[in-house]
Each structure stands twice: as C-alpha cells, then as structure tokens.
Amino acid sequence: MTVIEDLGKRAKQASRDLLSLSTAEKNQVLGASAQALLQAGETILAENAKDLALAQEHGISAVMEDRLRLTAERIEAMAEGLRQVADLQDPIGQVVQGFTNRDGLKIVQKRVPMGVIGMIFESRPNVSVDAFSLAFKTNNAIILRGGRDAIHSNKVLVGVLRQALREAGVNPDAVQLVEDPSHAVAEELMQAADYLDLLIPRGGARLIQTVKDKAKVPVIETGVGNVHIYVDQTADLDMATKIVINAKTQRPSVCNAAESLVVHQAVAGEFLPQLAQAIKDVHPVEFRADDRALALLPEAVPAQAEDFATEFLDYILSVKVVDNLEEAIEWVNTYTTHHSESIITQDIAAADGFQEQVDAAAVYVNASTRFTDGFVFGLGAEIGISTQKVHARGPMGLEALTSTKFYINGQGQIRE
C-alpha cells in the first residue's frame, strides 16, 4: 500500500465518521483547536525557525521569507481564524429548495459535505490551519500536502490539530499531512480519484498548471494573481497614488497584490512621476514600463512582453499607458488571471463599464485589490481564491466546500 493509498483510506473513513457531528460539536472542537495552537506556540515557532534557517541557506528572498515566517501574532491570528469559523453559520443541512412535484413526491435539496478534500499548497504554513477549519466545519476530511520549505511548520501544526481532535473523541484522520515532499507522491495525490472528491492547488502559476495537467481528480484553480490597477483620466490622483502603493507594497508576496499598472495617457504625465516619488518613501519598487511610460519614469527599465503576464510576488510593477477606457479593458482582459482588478475613476459610466466588462472574480472601483480575502468578505478563513467560473468563484468559504443532495420522500408512487 502506498502512502497516498493509506492516507486516502483513512480519510474516507474519517469523512464517514464526521457525518455524525453536530454544529455544536464541531464548534467546540474548533475552539479547543484554537486553544491548543496557542498553548503550543513556542514549539510551533521553534519548528518554523528550522524551516526559515533552511530557506535562508537556499537564498530565499525577503518577500518569500515573509510568506514562510510564523510569529506569535500570526499564531494568534490562526487561532482567531478557528474561532471565527466556529462562529459562522453551518451550511451543512441547509435546504437549498424544497417542493412537492405533480406525482406527490416531496423533494428537498440540501447542502452536504464534499467528502474528502485534497490540498496542495506552497510556503504559507497558516494555510494548514485555515484549510482544516473550513473542511472540518463542513464535515469534510482533508489531506494536506505543503511545500518542502514549510515541512517542519506543517508537521507541528497538523500534529497539534490531530491531538485536539483525538482529545475531543473525533477521528484525527479528519486532517492528515503528506510528509513525503517528493514530486512523485504529490502526483499520486493528484491522481487519487478513488479517495479524493476535490483537489485544490494553492500557489504559483507553475504549481497550478502542473495540477491541471496531471490531476485525475476534479480541480478548483486558485491563487494566481496578475492583478491590475487602471488609473482612468478622471481619477483623483492622490487617491490613485495611495491605492497603488498599498496594493503593491503592503504585502507583495500575496496573490491579491498589484502586479500591473495601467494608466490613461491624459493623466500619465502627472501621475507616474507623482507615484514614483511617493512610493520611494514606502519601499523601492522596480517599474518595468512600456515606451510611453519609460519617458515619464527615468529610473524604470524597459518592459519585456512576458512582464505584462507575470505574477512577480515582489517589489516589481509593470506599467502600461493606454489611450482610452476601451483599450484598458482590452489590455486587462488579455493579461488577467481572473483574480482581482481595480479601476480608479470619478466617472460612474467608466466604473460601471469596467466592472461589467472585466473578466475577474473581484472587480473594484476606487479601492485596493488587497481586500480580496475570505475574512474581509465575511466568509471567515478561506481555503483559496477561485479564478474559475464553475462551482465557486472568488474567495472560497464554507459553502464552496459543500455539494448538494436531493432527498425524495414518497408514499408508494411508481412511474407510469
């Protein structure tokens, strides 16, 4: 029996065991798990330090190191995320619709668990806890496969969660970790159709594409964010400056950070020098600019074609100057990864047109794209941000981890 077969069989059994848990019981376990994380704080930080040390030996960038790092505050945030999920309404058992058909059959459609969820993700160890909380609240078992760079952190976090389940009398196989970081085992998980009901990859473009190419399990794409901000000709340029700086520099390693700036030619001459000066006071950013933007940004470098399609996850921003709103929309739709896009404008018609015509899960007017987040949207912790249109789109909370089932009750009816 392979590692994945063993994990899969145990997860299948756990998913059946979880069906009997009530909302109150699940919430109690989530609260106990939050407390367990806090109590294990020193141990978690010690294991995370091992991952950080190895990453530094391998020359990790400061931005990517931030994704990997845990602190006391981040452990508290993970615990608070568990408590918040406990406070959310439980979707399991919710009636989607109910009716009596012309044959007298009483038909009710209810929300039910997916069953077993697989998740393959990179770097950020807090994902282990977020994913567990959402899967558990929806009575799903979950198999986690994190990146090699966070293996010590993920082991200790999943170990704490499993112990909390065990102490609560719940099958600890509700959450399991693939501890073998090899690509071969990851590919076996992608193809474990006998055990997984859904697979969620969360990471960079290469990971997402690999999973799409090799999976035999239904996949929800998440995370890749070539995020644009378009500064329109009627934009309040001080507002635009503040928004672009926030979206690019607050936390550049996340998927809702801005990667591409598109500017209307009517304001480019004033806006781009203003932005370049203001952003230096926050953090230096490398601008990779087209020909028209280069003339306005003396310290910029010429953009290559691939720069406009790249999720940098760094202090780098591509810049494109356009002639009108229509060109901006066409440009964004050409290079979008369907994650989050924003327009800065005082023109209501332009705002409406941008929101209607841009093909993305979240489209903003006069706001930073950094808000695309399950917690901010009121969903509690998120398991990912779907860039697809099937089943779930945007930040994925509890409801996205459910399916539905029809319950039909009759009194002896047969079909003539």
Automatic annotation (TrEMBL):
<dbReference type="InterPro" id="IPR012134">
    <property type="entry name" value="Glu-5-SA_DH"/>
</dbReference>
<keyword id="KW-0963">Cytoplasm</keyword>
<keyword id="KW-0521">NADP</keyword>
<dbReference type="GO" id="GO:0005737">
    <property type="term" value="C:cytoplasm"/>
</dbReference>
<protein>
    <recommendedName>
        <fullName>Gamma-glutamyl phosphate reductase</fullName>
        <ecNumber>1.2.1.41</ecNumber>
    </recommendedName>
</protein>
<dbReference type="Pfam" id="PF00171">
    <property type="entry name" value="Aldedh"/>
</dbReference>
<feature type="domain" description="Aldehyde dehydrogenase">
    <location>
        <begin position="303"/>
        <end position="378"/>
    </location>
</feature>
<dbReference type="InterPro" id="IPR016161">
    <property type="entry name" value="Ald_DH/histidinol_DH"/>
</dbReference>
<feature type="domain" description="Aldehyde dehydrogenase">
    <location>
        <begin position="9"/>
        <end position="282"/>
    </location>
</feature>
<keyword id="KW-0641">Proline biosynthesis</keyword>
<dbReference type="InterPro" id="IPR016163">
    <property type="entry name" value="Ald_DH_C"/>
</dbReference>
<dbReference type="InterPro" id="IPR000965">
    <property type="entry name" value="GPR_dom"/>
</dbReference>
<dbReference type="GO" id="GO:0050661">
    <property type="term" value="F:NADP binding"/>
</dbReference>
<comment type="pathway">
    <text>Amino-acid biosynthesis; L-proline biosynthesis; L-glutamate 5-semialdehyde from L-glutamate: step 2/2.</text>
</comment>
<dbReference type="GO" id="GO:0004350">
    <property type="term" value="F:glutamate-5-semialdehyde dehydrogenase activity"/>
</dbReference>
<comment type="function">
    <text>Catalyzes the NADPH-dependent reduction of L-glutamate 5-phosphate into L-glutamate 5-semialdehyde and phosphate. The product spontaneously undergoes cyclization to form 1-pyrroline-5-carboxylate.</text>
</comment>
<keyword id="KW-0028">Amino-acid biosynthesis</keyword>
<comment type="similarity">
    <text>Belongs to the gamma-glutamyl phosphate reductase family.</text>
</comment>
<dbReference type="InterPro" id="IPR016162">
    <property type="entry name" value="Ald_DH_N"/>
</dbReference>
<keyword id="KW-0560">Oxidoreductase</keyword>
<dbReference type="InterPro" id="IPR015590">
    <property type="entry name" value="Aldehyde_DH_dom"/>
</dbReference>
<dbReference type="GO" id="GO:0055129">
    <property type="term" value="P:L-proline biosynthetic process"/>
</dbReference>
